[in-house]
Write a structure and sequence with these properties.
Organism: Egibacter rhizosphaerae
Helix content: 40-55%
Radius of gyration: 27 Å
Protein name: Class I SAM-dependent methyltransferase
Structural class: alpha/beta
CATH architecture of the largest domain: 3-Layer(aba) Sandwich
Pfam families: Methyltransf_23
Order of helices and strands: EHHEHEEEHEHEEHH
Shape: elongated
GO molecular function, one term: methyltransferase activity
Keywords: Coiled coil, Methyltransferase, Transferase
Distance between the termini: 62 Å
């Protein structure tokens, strides 16, 4: 096998988010030994979740048992959570009344153009019949006005799963998603490919920071931004004080006592506010 031409993330070095563990616990309590969702899959969901734009309307294509839709709803980071699947899974459950579930084909979705800020489609396209495969990709793009994130098996070993109808090679990704960013979620035997496309003009780049170190770097960036905002606010306050001082001196020079006193009171109030900061 030739060396992969895409950046890689070792999925087993990633952390499973506490949110994912909470949802996983509900499924384990509900289904016990009959629940066989892999530990690596929860880490994959964690990696995807960390990269999603928050605050908008999100669609998860391929509801399955509802794991990811429930994580999205419990996170309270999205204005609305919608999920679809061609047929309802026997183990599908909803842990939040806000989830909107629909039975429909990814090849013909009954949503308006640009209906969602974020669209996710994980481990679905390898199951889609040939006659609707490329129409399904077009539909994902049609309903997305912002961020589209897809995962599929990467170079799945032969023989592929009996429920899969295709396998993906490097040239398939480059042909089907010419404007996308890619990252391989590496694990033994069956890695995944994470694909991201954007339709909102934002940079189309998958961050590769992993786990705790990545979160620390994000916290550092947020702290630096807050310090910059604080310095800007202090500079504007100093400029305002200087302007009022000039106004007071000008008024006093013209012996307009009443106006000068009023301006002086305003100056004292602002100085007092500045000292408290």
């Amino acid at each position: 096998m030739s060396e992969a031409p895409f950046p890689e993330i070792e999925i087993r070095d990633s952390e499973q988010l506490p949110l994912m563990s909470r949802v996983e616990g509900v499924y384990l309590d509900r289904f016990g030994d009959a629940w066989d969702y892999q530990a690596d899959a929860w880490k994959r969901l964690s990696r995807v979740f960390e990269r999603l734009d928050s605050g908008g309307d999100i669609l998860d294509v391929g509801a399955g048992s509802g794991q990811f839709a429930n994580c999205l709803a419990w996170s309270e980071q999205f204005a609305s959570v919608t999920t679809i699947d061609a047929t309802r899974f026997g183990k599908y459950i909803e842990l939040d009344d806000s989830i909107q579930y629909h039975e429909m084909s990814v090849g013909e979705m009954a949503f308006e153009d640009d209906a969602f800020d974020v669209v996710t489609c994980m481990e679905v396209l390898e199951h889609v019949p040939e006659e609707i495969f490329e129409p399904a990709i077009a539909e994902l793009r049609r309903v997305c006005r912002g961020q589209l994130v897809i995962t599929v098996p990467y170079r799945e070993p032969e023989p592929i799963s009996e429920t899969h109808v295709r396998r993906f090679e490097d040239e398939d990704f480059l042909r089907l998603f010419p404007n996308a960013e890619f990252a391989i979620l590496r694990r033994p035997r069956k890695p995944w490919m994470m694909i991201q496309e954007r339709f909102d003009g934002q940079p189309n780049q998958i961050p590769l920071e992993v786990g705790r170190e990545g979160r620390l770097r994000q916290a550092e960036r947020e702290r630096d931004a807050a310090q910059l905002r604080e310095r800007d606010s202090a500079a504007r306050l100093r400029e305002r004080i200087a302007a009022l001082e000039r106004e007071v001196n000008a008024l006093r020079g013209r012996k307009v006592v009443r106006a000068a006193n009023a301006a002086g009171r305003g100056l004292r109030r602002i100085r007092s506010t500045a000292r408290r900061r």
